[in-house]
Amino acid sequence: MLDYDSAYGEFNRLLDISDTKWNLVQDSDALGRLVKHSEKEGYVFLLPVPEFRKDYASDEYKEKSMLSIELLFKDQYLE
Asked: Longest Cα pair distance anywhere in the chain, in angstroms?
């Protein structure tokens, strides 16, 4: 599991490699992004972006996304 900050770039590099064995299974900011290894039982999951944090991360922001795992919680719980 990866949060949606600098790990976004690492996640996408799995798919950019020309001889990749990673297949995109789910591609959604709201639900998360999931890739599965085609030969092994390996998965990598980019955590979903909650609606209340959509200004922090998205496929549009790409590697400029700044949604760390702590920010998946609402502000009232972080105080």
From this structure: 45
